[in-house]
UniProtKB/TrEMBL annotation:
<dbReference type="Pfam" id="PF03741">
    <property type="entry name" value="TerC"/>
</dbReference>
<dbReference type="InterPro" id="IPR022301">
    <property type="entry name" value="Integral_membrane_YjbE"/>
</dbReference>
<feature type="transmembrane region" description="Helical">
    <location>
        <begin position="6"/>
        <end position="29"/>
    </location>
</feature>
<feature type="transmembrane region" description="Helical">
    <location>
        <begin position="68"/>
        <end position="86"/>
    </location>
</feature>
<keyword id="KW-1133">Transmembrane helix</keyword>
<dbReference type="InterPro" id="IPR005496">
    <property type="entry name" value="Integral_membrane_TerC"/>
</dbReference>
<feature type="transmembrane region" description="Helical">
    <location>
        <begin position="130"/>
        <end position="153"/>
    </location>
</feature>
<comment type="similarity">
    <text>Belongs to the TerC family.</text>
</comment>
<keyword id="KW-0812">Transmembrane</keyword>
<feature type="transmembrane region" description="Helical">
    <location>
        <begin position="191"/>
        <end position="210"/>
    </location>
</feature>
<feature type="transmembrane region" description="Helical">
    <location>
        <begin position="41"/>
        <end position="62"/>
    </location>
</feature>
<protein>
    <submittedName>
        <fullName>TerC family protein</fullName>
    </submittedName>
</protein>
<keyword id="KW-0472">Membrane</keyword>
<feature type="transmembrane region" description="Helical">
    <location>
        <begin position="160"/>
        <end position="179"/>
    </location>
</feature>
Length: 220
């Protein structure tokens, strides 16, 4: 039960950290609507996003069981984790909808386009636990949607959450590669299964710290 709860918390954190950008899109997409329509757009957009993401994640769980796909996914997830710490996303080109229907479709479409990282990360972390996937996504997306401004500000004010989420992704990437037994055995030999996840976690965190050090303000 404790393992299940820890897994649930990890999925919640991964989803919230990786959905900061989605929160900005939701806020922008509904910005020009009247207040009552804005609330409806957020409700329906959130419902559509939850349903779509649950379906995609469950599909990804089964796709990741295909040999070598899991190893490829681990490399992609490692890149997503590094990108989370070194990138600054630009949302200036997000369409600001003027009708309720357009706002809802914009939110769902944007969530679909931007959710590859979430879907891959959660499918990898959940290891086939469909129940925890549905619960984790179902509870974290409303937090992101209805507290979109709060989520964005929280992640900017307390970057430790971003680093923690990225570290979990890095560890999960290492676990994914090890789970692809044929390729892992061929490339890693008899190396302990605990080594690679730790190495991938350190790579992710080091990339974030390096970026922070390189671009830190210089005092003259």
């Amino acid at each position: 039960m404790l393992d299940w709860f820890i897994l649930f918390l990890q999925i919640m954190l991964i989803n919230i950290v990786l959905s900061g950008d989605n929160a900005v899109v939701i806020a922008l997409a509904s910005k020009n609507l009247p207040l009552h329509q804005r609330k409806q757009a957020i409700w329906w957009g959130a419902f559509g996003a939850i349903a779509l993401r649950v379906v995609l994640t469950v599909i990804a769980v089964y796709v990741l069981k295909v040999p070598f796909i899991q190893a490829l996914g681990s490399v992609l997830l490692l890149w997503i984790a590094i990108k989370l710490l070194i990138d600054e996303e630009d949302h200036s080109n997000v369409k600001q909808a003027t009708t309720l229907g357009k706002a809802v479709s914009t939110i769902i479409l944007a969530d679909f386009v931007m959710s590859l990282d979430n879907v891959l990360a959660i499918a990898a972390k959940a290891k086939g636990e469909v129940g925890v996937i549905i619960l984790g996504i179902g509870l974290s997306i409303p937090i992101i949607v209805w507290g979109s401004t709060l989520v964005v500000n929280l992640l900017k004010q307390y970057p430790i959450f971003v680093y923690l989420g990225a570290g979990i992704l890095g560890y999960t990437a290492g676990e994914m590669f090890i789970a692809d037994e044929k390729l892992a055995t061929r490339l890693l030999g008899d190396i302990s299964h605990y080594v690679l996840p730790i190495v991938t976690t350190l790579i992710v965190l080091a990339s974030g710290l390096l970026k922070k050090w390189v671009f830190r303000p210089r005092h003259t």
